[in-house]
């Protein structure tokens, strides 16, 4: 197991300290931690290949849509330029120079909604786009809504939001990793309410973020959530049958607590090794600390004396 090394210096460190040596201290880790599911690299590659096949045609749609948006914006600006010049000329002719700005703004708003209609027709988006949520923030918001809904006891199909079936995370490409540390906890909080379709958390191999962004036609795809009603989802679910379902008894509702406690074993004690330093000569270090405390006490006592009783050097200036 690799050791995390923190290279930033301590605020309490002083230059006069003695030489130090590196030591490792055992500390208890928090029991309320949720591990990422352990998935082999081969399975990660298979999942990525299947996801890429589901996203077939998305990049072409995004590229065509962007080109059409730029074309419509260009045509609207070219059409609005002579119209605006004509309105300003008419306003000056009628002696309405002071209100020309207001007239142009009012006429422009009505013109944009009626006359600036173009014949550009956007292509139909791929069906998979309606069942995807991309981005760390967007996926986090959806997971939070699902957790609140389940814990609130809402079971009405009309008001119940569409559930997420799989969350794909480009864990090896996210830097710093703390940006996605909350994802396993949210997934476990949802699964601990015993939903009919639990959420599967799947990590993708290194380089998956760049591949997904190219296929999706957007800048970044660090996290992606796939809805439970997505088309052709069964082919992807058949690959991740061995992925463990994240749960946590301390995140469960009162109804599911007893069942989870029976199904979940006791979490073993985990001791972390903390890398730190200690003085090579402890006796010298203790002597320096004692002398430092004595000097600080004398300095404090000198400051607390009245001004008249202090020793003032004849060479001091005010």
From TrEMBL:
<dbReference type="GO" id="GO:0005829">
    <property type="term" value="C:cytosol"/>
</dbReference>
<feature type="region of interest" description="Disordered">
    <location>
        <begin position="71"/>
        <end position="114"/>
    </location>
</feature>
<dbReference type="GO" id="GO:0034965">
    <property type="term" value="P:intronic box C/D snoRNA processing"/>
</dbReference>
<feature type="compositionally biased region" description="Low complexity">
    <location>
        <begin position="99"/>
        <end position="114"/>
    </location>
</feature>
<dbReference type="GO" id="GO:0008033">
    <property type="term" value="P:tRNA processing"/>
</dbReference>
<dbReference type="Pfam" id="PF08228">
    <property type="entry name" value="RNase_P_pop3"/>
</dbReference>
<dbReference type="InterPro" id="IPR029064">
    <property type="entry name" value="Ribosomal_eL30-like_sf"/>
</dbReference>
<feature type="compositionally biased region" description="Basic and acidic residues">
    <location>
        <begin position="295"/>
        <end position="305"/>
    </location>
</feature>
<dbReference type="GO" id="GO:0006364">
    <property type="term" value="P:rRNA processing"/>
</dbReference>
<feature type="region of interest" description="Disordered">
    <location>
        <begin position="277"/>
        <end position="318"/>
    </location>
</feature>
<dbReference type="GO" id="GO:0000171">
    <property type="term" value="F:ribonuclease MRP activity"/>
</dbReference>
<dbReference type="GO" id="GO:0004526">
    <property type="term" value="F:ribonuclease P activity"/>
</dbReference>
<dbReference type="GO" id="GO:0000172">
    <property type="term" value="C:ribonuclease MRP complex"/>
</dbReference>
<feature type="compositionally biased region" description="Basic and acidic residues">
    <location>
        <begin position="75"/>
        <end position="91"/>
    </location>
</feature>
<protein>
    <submittedName>
        <fullName>Uncharacterized protein</fullName>
    </submittedName>
</protein>
<dbReference type="GO" id="GO:0005655">
    <property type="term" value="C:nucleolar ribonuclease P complex"/>
</dbReference>
<dbReference type="InterPro" id="IPR013241">
    <property type="entry name" value="RNase_P_Pop3"/>
</dbReference>
